[in-house]
Amino acid sequence: MMSKEQALHKAERQFSQLSKLVDRAIHEGWRADQLERASFAELLDMGLSLLTAFVAAHGNGDQGAQIEHQEQTLQRLEQEHSRRYVSIYGPLEISRYVYGTREGQEIQRVPLDARLGLPAGEISYVLEDWLERMCLKDAFRESVNSLVELLGGRAKVSVDTAEEHSRRMDQHTESFRASQPLPPPDEEGELLVATADGKGVPMRRLADLAAPPRVAHRRSKGEKTNKKQMSYVGAVYSIARFPRTVDQILDELLRKQRAKDRPRPQHKRVWAEMTRPGEGLPEGSLLHGPSYLFASLAVECQARDPEREKVLICLMDGEKQLWGLQEDWLGRAVPILDLFHVNERLWTAAHCFHRETSPEAEQFVERYLRMLLEGKVDSVIRSFRQLLVTRNLAGEKRQRLQATITYYDNNREHMRYDVYLAAGYPIGSGVAEGACRHLVKDRLERTGMRWSLAGAQAMLHLRALYINGDWSAFVDHRIQQEQTTLYGQAA
After folding, report:
1. Of 153, 221, 301, 474, which shows the fewest CB atoms inside 10 Å?
2. Does any domain span residue 199?
3. Which pTM value belongs to this model?
């Protein structure tokens, strides 16, 4: 590696070339974007020279023949050891002295690495951040190729490195969440809402929970689609009361007339868990994803409303398992069945008697939806049971109508919509639906993707932080934790 003076002199020459490039662009009448593209490559080269000068200025890490570290005397090993550092400007080979007991044994202290705050791996923290931001949105291979191309091939990263990096970053997500401050009380709404839903993830090997960690890859020709494993997505947010009438809800659902003054969720936090092996559990034991999710929701709700002054609402669809967990973990919550799922069942019932898109089907739905919103769930169930008999339904149509009846009957205690509307409670789980779509579907359900359990869970955790707007803070947290582990100091 060059000395500091050599590297700075090289950077000065490169700056001079950049100045000449600008003059040339002016003289030849370049477009602005042409200068951007041409100068960016030169700027990266100059950046590598400046980084080289910075590293060289710190010497070779020689602190004498012996050093004391953690109440132990370490010897300076005879030969300098080299490590590779891949920055956004390109790779560097850094040669430095290291300390340990003897050559061939574990290196126990590298003073230069500690002084520079180098990461555990080859990839710089900045490059890791940029790479992971891309991987959170697109497939690993496409993300790696895009980043390498944008940086002109200077910072090459393998797909395997990107996948492994994602799993390593996930090791810091729990501690980050635990370290986050609570929302300011004056920014919270008077209602606290918890919601949850399930979304399948296409798995590489559904039943093999002990399989080596690998992340998504595409199916080979002729290979069949594998089954999905459920991920459970939850969210907690606060919101202001918003009393509405039955007619307003009908206008919104059937005539798409959204209320303009609808309050917005405040400080929404989403999270997702899958059933998987857990650290510290007996061998063969699994961490139950939905239970762990509800435990997390309960902790969040308790932290945000320790005195239980707010009305707590749990808003979900009709999955029995989730309602059972609500009773266990959020027993004081007002349980509300998502109205959009209720409405979907009504359309299913309507199409047992009327063709799709017909005015008769719309009238059927409006009539019974009004009854449900007025709190007349029992009346709707009785009417549908009578229709089973009087209309002589048979076969698939009879099964669909019976399924709707059963759904309403099982959830009648969660369908007191007249009470909810008057109290200004939310009755639609759009937050959970949106979280499932953005958190899971938009990244983990792309065509041909299959996931290992470790890879899928890591991506869900990291995407949740990104969606919550916490990514930059999380990256700082992760760097500080790793620096403390490596060097006994925060970055």
Report:
1. 221
2. yes
3. 0.88
Q: Range of 25's domain?
A: 1-57
Burial of 283 (0-12, 13-18, 19+ CB in 10 A): exposed
Q: Are residues 249 and 319 in the same domain?
A: yes
- The residues, any chain, with a CB within 8 Å of residue 240's CB and separated by 6 or more, are 189, 190, 191, 263, 424
* Whether residue 394 sits in one domain with residue 270: no
Residue 142's contacts (CB-CB under 8 Å, 6 or more residues apart) are none
* DSSP H or E segment with residue 107: strand 107-109
- For residue 402, what are its two tokens? 């019976």
Q: How far is CA 362 from the centre of its chain?
A: 38
For 310-364, the pLDDT digits (tens) are 999 999 998 999 999 999 999 999 999 999 999 999 999 999 999 999 999 999 9
CB atoms inside a 10 Å sphere around CB 73: 10
How confident is the model over 173-202, as pLDDT tens digits?
A: 999 999 999 999 999 999 999 999 999 999
Round to whole Å and give the CA distance between 411 and 397. 22
Structure tokens at 126: 């900045």
Nearest to 335 by CA among 189, 193, 191: 193
- Which helix H or strand E contains 372, and what residues bound it? helix 359-373
Give the angle subtended at the CA of 26 by the CAs of 25 and 29, to the nearest 5°. 80
Q: Strands of 266-274's sheet, edge to edge?
A: 266-274, 228-239, 191-202, 311-316, 334-337
Q: What is the pLDDT of residues 369-394, one digit of tens each?
A: 999 999 999 999 999 999 998 998 89
Provide the 3-class DSSP secondary structure of residue 449. strand
What is the tally of structural domains in the chain?
3
The reply to whether 259 and 324 lie within a common domain is yes
